Amino acid sequence: MINERFVEYFRENFFQNKPKELEQFLSCIELSIPRTIRIKPWKEEQVRKNLEWDGWILTPTNINRVFAMDRREDFDPLERRLGFSSDHLLGNFYIQELAAAHPVDILAGSRINTESFLILDMAASPGGKTTQLAEYFPNSFIIANEPTRERLPQLLQNLERMGSANIGITLYPGQLYRHQEELFDRILLDAPCSGEWTLFKGTDAVKHWHLKNIKEIARLQTKLLDAALHTLKIGGEMIYSTCSLNLLENEWVLEAMREKYGNAFEIIFQKKFWPHIDKTGGFFVAKIRKISSLNAPLINENIEEKTEKEWRKSEIKNQNKNNKELKLFRGNISPWNTQDGITLYEHEWKILAIRNSDTGDRIRDTVFLMRYGEQIWTIEHGKFISGNRAWRYLDTSKTELYIISNIWELDTYLRGEPISNIGDDSYILITFENQILGLEYRKWDFISNTFSHEWRRK
Ligand SMILES: C[S@@+](CC[C@H](N)C(=O)[O-])C[C@H]1O[C@@H](n2cnc3c(N)ncnc32)[C@H](O)[C@@H]1O
User: Fold this and answer.
1) Is the shortest distance between the CB of 154 and ligand 1 below 6 Å?
2) For residue 232, what are the contacts with CB-CB under 8 A and spacing of at least 6?
3) Cα dist. 422→208, 400, 425, 428, 457 in Å?
4) Is 127 helix (H, G, I), strand (E, B) or coil?
5) Before 335, cis peptide (omega within 30)?
6) Is it the case that residue 45 has pLDDT exceeding 50?
7) Phi-psi region of 113 (alpha: psi -120 to 50; beta: other; left: phi over 0)
8) Which CATH number applies to 399-455: 2.60.120.680, 2.30.40.10, 3.40.50.620, 2.30.130.60?
9) β 93-95/36-39 pair status
10) How many Å separate Cα 270 from the centre of its chain?
């Protein structure tokens, strides 16, 4: 049954004297959200060809490289699940809802930015927008921040799948970034929210809708936006977005900042995506430019004070530990050299590939990075293990190839089952239709893929 509190709130605030439109809006609750994917730059032609061959119809949307996906009638969904296609496993595309693809597109001005920015993704997991930031800002260094431990594995998996040599991870409550005054050139605050966007998904979110919960989450959002405005450089730009539609989590959060900081920032773009109008999930996006420093005192609440002290203590301890342990990798990774622009670091038993950037070097001394760049190998007994995706960062032009010859063998490989009779022990580059799938170690005349378990085709 529909939640009357929810209906009343929206009738009163958005659809007064518009009963037909309210009805259209409410009718979206039962619908499923249209499926869209975002394809990586320079992979568009190849991914479109492969997916069309697999029975998908791709329709362009108003965002470059984002396509609406429909199934051909003779399509067998069990056989060709999008998430298990080889292009998905290789990180050539990300399944992302159209409205959710807007914030980063708007932050980047719909173009690939070649500047070397320091960027903060303040609330990052599961990483859809972090990986999009990396595509739109390839020469920048991105901090993906996520304080909720249970949401980390998904973030790590997505970063690994999509490639993350210019991304570092921090684990702070985003509010604490306000102590890093004017540090970031660009910020994405895709805030935790009440999630009214699920309105278009036929889920239970609306059933549990209550103004009391919304007020609580709006308080957190205000603190996060406050922190983001502090840590944004003068002249820097940021996005505030939520997947909610009510006023408290959106317009009123901006209004609270306006009251506090006056004209220290300007809102240069603002849009609310309505399910019944935009045919997307519900979404709110505002683009903000910082004009001058913020003078007002910080919000002083006891709980914040306490967390801050704890944070500073652990921060110093962690930083020292981190700085000591992360060192340039000086070992031999023969027969390969690293690709231009990539440096390898060694951290305990891991080898990390990091895209060279001054901004990345600077941030390493400022915050504790739980992960820096992409882990491409682990070292066990002097051997490189689990280096499946290392080819992304190495010069493999002289590495021996194994060419997968048909889709059945491809399926075997993607499922993690062995391919045998392929020669002597050594590293070998696995390819299919001119696309590299992995770098594997061939032992006892066979190989099987070393993707993380989650990414194996099932
Ligand atoms: C809307 S989700 C982010 C989705 C993500 N940007 C994406 O596109 O994949 C909001 C995230 O904020 C995190 N979060 C919750 N409290 C937070 C806080 N105090 N500071 C920063 N992030 C927080 C949640 O754990 C959640 O992962």
Assistant:
1) no
2) 182, 184, 187, 238, 288, 290
3) 57, 11, 9, 10, 22
4) coil
5) yes
6) yes
7) beta
8) 2.30.130.60
9) antiparallel
10) 22
For ligand 1, whether the C-beta of 132 sits within 6 Å is no
- How is domain 112-302 classified at the CATH fold level? Rossmann fold (3.40.50)
> What's the CA gap between 180 and 392, in Å, rounded?
33
Structure pTM? 0.92
Contact 372, 345 (CB under 8 A): yes
- Does residue 305 have a pLDDT over 70? no
Ligand 1 contact via 323 beta carbon (within 6 Å)? no
Q: If you search the block for the tokens 């594995």, which residue do you land on?
A: 153
- Work out whether strand 401-403 and strand 426-432 pair parallel, antiparallel, or are unpaired: parallel
Domain boundaries, the chain: 31-95, 112-302, 399-455
**Interior angle at CA 308, CA 305 and CA 311, nearest 5:** 155
Q: Whose CA is nearest to atom 2 of ligand 1?
A: 192
Tell me which fold the domain 31-95 belongs to: Alpha-Beta Plaits (3.30.70)
Give tens-digit pLDDT for 103-150: 999 999 999 999 999 999 999 999 999 999 999 999 999 999 999 999
Residue 24 is encoded by which pair of tokens?
């259209």
**Which residue is it, tokens 């921040």?**
145
* Catalytic residue IDs: 243
Tokens, residue 52: 């069309």
Residues 428 and 423: their CA atoms lie apart, in Å, by 10
